[in-house]
């Protein structure tokens, strides 16, 4: 009986000691690499002063922010301890953090460091009372979830519990130096297993900002942490943690464990009896320790294997992509195990499913075919490119899954399908008014300009076509499918490839025949699409789309003969602005001119679209244009063909990746 009483107390004391020893466990730090100061300057002196001030205040309060501006080099700093720690622990953690942030972020003007029990941050810019979400830390328990939480109600229970805690923390009085809350709830189907959550904001935030910061973290849980025993997401302004084991300090439990409660008997035991009891008690403790360390080793190996997969696929970019990683079980649950009812599209690289995440957001899930090697290349290219792009007319990549042989991309869900779904259907094209078509042309132009001029590196899409333009609930366009895109330096005018990819009918001549691509290649594709939007007719799906009877030739001949409105979609007659239609036809023909330098830049196109009085240049004949009819200038045709032949570089058709312009 004595042994049964003794083992739980010894076991509890061991893990209480283990927990306390890890209270100051380092988690992560972030330093500004492009915002630095030189040694022995006023900023270094002010930084040393502010770090000393922060550690000295941690003995009495859990949060403190201050400013040191003895010179023009102002430094702003703060610390925040977790709401459940004691004052001594807060001061000890803050002291360690202020020392380590100085040594880890040498000469950085802006830095943040997280420990298990505290956070320290400084900057040369004012950041108090402001919600800041970057840099951030996602940390998960890498073991697979226990069977007890594999019920469908678990996700909703977690969301509801977090919502209650967020509301309590956001509404706390900031004068108490805490916006902090914990919650625990028993899991359905289990009498003992509980879920524990903890949320906290910096107290200088308003209630509304605190709730917004924590709600944003909640929306990121499906990307990083769902499907694990526990998760932790740390922002500079707020943090959230949850687990199936108690990880924060509960006063009621701490008080229960006292020396008096460990007293087993008032009468002393003989020495041999005491040794025997200790030996018997140590056996299960050592066994549990062995299980703990074995599980820990397995977790570390899983983490290494996961990072190795990321490194193998994405190289040095792998560390910046970890926060976008989805757990496969999360995606499987969102798509109802990739059910046929959720299937919304299918292409050469795989299938696309509609899904709903835990927080209610709808997503499009692109599951790449396991047998498609080309799909794997597209997957890497798309993750590396779209993850860095943000524009209202580009489909947002929310994350990806790279697990064993699964390669999955998760995008925002765009409800109205692709442009070709409406444009080339005789019935559905009536749903596209001229006002909407004009807006679509302008939105596509702005997205291409962003790719060419405003992203960090110039991006050539190489496959702009109606099936790669999705329409949201307001019929605004969003360019998608960046698997064939190429990134070039800002000052690089063109690139060259031996492997031509794209869709016949939308490729510029210099790219289709010579493998030369540039922003003018995308502008050519844009011009073809503008003429398709105006006419409601597909350029061509044949392998000779540019010749004689193609849309480009037809539009040029009508323009040349003074009858440009002959190409207008009949459903638009009488309900469109003739000035805008004329302008767009002229823009389309300018973009498909044979010589790349004659085509306008996208900034010029946007200027043409937005300026009602601007005079547009007169377009030259489109690329690949050959005169129809019997009266043909054979000399001119011979010269044109001779020019094409002279610049033509032979290539093998097996080296080309060409897709037909078909609906998804």
From TrEMBL:
Secreted listed as a keyword: no
GO terms, molecular function: ATP binding; protein serine/threonine kinase activity
Reaction equations catalysed: L-threonyl-[protein] + ATP = O-phospho-L-threonyl-[protein] + ADP + H(+); L-seryl-[protein] + ATP = O-phospho-L-seryl-[protein] + ADP + H(+)
Cited SUPFAM superfamilies: Protein kinase-like (PK-like)
Pfam families: PK_Tyr_Ser-Thr (PF07714), Stress-antifung (PF01657)
Coiled-coil portions: none
Biological processes, Gene Ontology terms: defense response to bacterium
Tree of life domain: Eukaryota
Residues of the signal peptide: 1-21
Full protein name: Protein kinase domain-containing protein
Subcellular location: Membrane
Gene3D superfamilies (UniProt xref): Gnk2 domain, C-X8-C-X2-C motif (3.30.430.20), Phosphorylase Kinase, domain 1 (3.30.200.20), Transferase(Phosphotransferase) domain 1 (1.10.510.10)
Taxonomic lineage: Eukaryota, Viridiplantae, Streptophyta, Embryophyta, Tracheophyta
Membrane association type: Single-pass membrane protein
